[in-house]
Amino acid sequence: MTVRQEVPFDDTLGTLGEAAVLARIFPRLPHAAAALLGPGDDAAVIAAPDGRFVVTTDMMIHGPDFRMAWSSPHDLGWKAAASNLADVAAMGAVPSALVVAIAAPSTSSVTLLEGIADGFRLACAALSPGCGVVGGDLSVSPTLTLAVTAFGDLEGRAPVLRSGARPGDVVAVSGALGAAGAGLRMLFDRALDAAGHPDAARARALRAREPELMAAQFTPSPPIADGKAAALAGATAMLDLSDGLALDARRLAAASGVCVDLHSAALGPDVRAALAGGEDHSLLAAFPAAIALPAGFRAIGAVRVGDGLSVDGQLYTGGGWDPFSGWDNADG
Amino acid sequence: MTVRQEVPFDDTLGTLGEAAVLARIFPRLPHAAAALLGPGDDAAVIAAPDGRFVVTTDMMIHGPDFRMAWSSPHDLGWKAAASNLADVAAMGAVPSALVVAIAAPSTSSVTLLEGIADGFRLACAALSPGCGVVGGDLSVSPTLTLAVTAFGDLEGRAPVLRSGARPGDVVAVSGALGAAGAGLRMLFDRALDAAGHPDAARARALRAREPELMAAQFTPSPPIADGKAAALAGATAMLDLSDGLALDARRLAAASGVCVDLHSAALGPDVRAALAGGEDHSLLAAFPAAIALPAGFRAIGAVRVGDGLSVDGQLYTGGGWDPFSGWDNADG
Q: What's the half-sphere exposure (Cβ side, CA atoms, 13 Å) at A304?
């Protein structure tokens, strides 16, 4: 398995060596306001002003998580940043910093890593200004892999867990439902070549025709600041929609010991797509019925006594994405 | 590329699915005293009592970093924990918590992940009691990959950087020099089969004959508590020896703007092995000459005006390990 070269005859990781590659990447990484000591020593030192910090980690793997013919290096960095920032936001925290470990084939062009660094910088600037990359690790691997760990500051608030939803609460969402999954389905429908492999030219054409669905899949913009807003408004429970509304709503219901009942009329024209589609990284939260929803959130259901997920009062058993059984072993 | 099954016909990650795999792993992971909220939500919450935290991240990749015929799953977890804990210790900090992202082929036995979890638990208990795993991520990948991020508490002290060594300081080390590298060389000399592939039976025989060198390579025991001891004693600079004494001493010299001069008589019987061997994860530090070295440290040289690395006053240009050019693309 090899990573497509962005620039023919460009420097590769193997010919440049680690120190030279790092020198090319560091200037492109976003600075973190919370970094008391940034990259270059054995470890970084990050400010944790309230005496605690929030931490989450997530990997992106060539094959199960992305195709090089469809995603640019920039897209990979953007999406890795966005998905981890959303997990921090789902605790009601403000993202402070990221560390990024990247493993790539030694034959990869250094422009691959430069593009990934650009994606991290632009995603942080757009989604969570002030958050930046404070450290990382470069390794060689046959499989391009990004492992991101993100940190956040609770600013003195209690974290918003999955387990606090109570019967009578309103269920609300901030962000898209099903758009990233619809974009992925469209790519598999229209951006494969005759042999069934991911095709770069067809993906480019699809991006021009369907910019919103493609952006939802390649460069998602989860509502990071709405995590803090939900916490301040009094959200009783919250999580990040990474594996699809159905599966993640069921997780919130199970953790809280309640039933989540969604209103199909609030889920858009394609209810099944809204329920099944993964990777939206929108925020699903429960709020006491008496309070006004914070800007960005819209009501999509209610918390009831019981368990599991229902739609319009009927038990819903449709699923979402499982990382160990949802991949067909293809890459490209 | 497939991961060797530990138990024939055992459950695999693909057949069990993510939730069932996590249920098998969680009970084996070490608890962190600093965890205010552990695994199971979008993110964990960790105590950072002095208002800062130290963070480092490091990957281990099947092929460049380990062979499945030589390392047990337990060894992989142990080594991933130990190498990250050493980076925290090298700042003068006390390790508080780890997050662990693992990507494995879907055909892997769940016992692979259980063994890795056991290695993390036993390494934390032996090397840094109270430190534990507070969260993680499971993914599917053709290449078994462990990405660890480790956190530490500075307990109100300034971090010990690489850049503080001053001419006249004593250069000292705590831990082995060259043992892990000698163990690896011995494996490549004596634990390959006739076709040149890693051989499990020969590696087992070598472990019985050379338990110390094999332990240095497979289950290193870096002196984690000596990082705090060095900071308390007044170390002016410190780093973790991951890529070999020569390369890492040169890094300390460059960051501090000094020359590090090592005394060959203090480097053991095989001076070249002590200088070149990587993966010891010992702590290299500089101390003002007037102070008594803390227990665990032994003097191996002195800081002088100048730059680079010398041995007995002679410029030394021998190298160490580069992750992008040191791997031959083999695995097994």
A: 17
Identify which of A261, A254, A259, A327 has the alpha carbon closest to the alpha carbon of residue A299.
A261
Calculate ∠ Cα A138-A140-A143, nearest 5°.
Answer: 110
Per DSSP, the three-state class of A241 is strand
Residue A83, phi then psi, degrees to nearest 5:
-70, -35
Residue written as token pair 């969260």: B135
CA distances in angstroms from A98 to A72, A80, A166, listed in the order given? 21, 10, 33
Distance between alpha carbon A272 and the CA centroid of its chain, in Å?
Answer: 21
**Using CA atoms in the order A98, A99, A103, A107, what is the torsion angle rounded to 10 degrees?**
80
What is the pairing mode between strands A259-262 and A145-153? Answer: unpaired
| pLDDT of amino acid B322 | 57
Both tokens assigned to A220: 């998602």
> What's chain A's Rg over C-alpha atoms?
20
Cβ-based burial of B48 (10 A; exposed 0-12, middle 13-18, buried ≥19)? buried
Does pTM top 0.95 for this prediction?
Answer: no
Query: Contacts of residue A17 in chain B, CB cutoff 8 Å?
Result: 322, 324-325
Interface contact flag, B147 A16, Cβ < 8 Å: no
Cα B89 to Cα B56, B148, B260: the distances in Å are: 11, 15, 21
User: Tens digits of per-residue pLDDT, B136-162?
Assistant: 999 999 999 999 999 999 999 999 999
Q: Say how many C-beta atoms besides its own lie within 10 A of residue A4's C-beta.
A: 12
In sequence order, which ranges of chain B are alpha helices (DSSP H)? 13-16, 18-25, 73-89, 110-127, 179-190, 200-209, 211-218, 225-233, 245-256, 271-276
Whole-number Å distance between alpha carbons of B286 and B268 = 19
Of A90, A103, A323, the CB nearest to B145: A103
Average pLDDT over residues B285-289: 98
State pLDDT tens for residues A150-164: 999 999 999 999 999
Residues linked to residue A94 through DSSP beta bridges, in sequence order: A153
Question: CA nearest A325 in B: which residue?
Answer: B14
Whether residue B13 contacts residue B104, with contact meaning beta carbons closer than 8 Å, is answered with yes
Collect all residues with Cβ–Cβ distance below 8 Å to B32 and sequence separation of at least 6. Answer: B38, B46, B96, B97, B98, B130, B131, B132, B133, B134
Q: Of the candidates B40, B41, B139, which has its C-beta nearest A59's C-beta?
A: B139
CB contact under 8 A, B45 and A54: yes
Say how many C-beta atoms besides its own lie within 10 A of residue B257's C-beta.
13
Q: Which residues of chain A have pLDDT under 70?
A: 1-9, 320-327
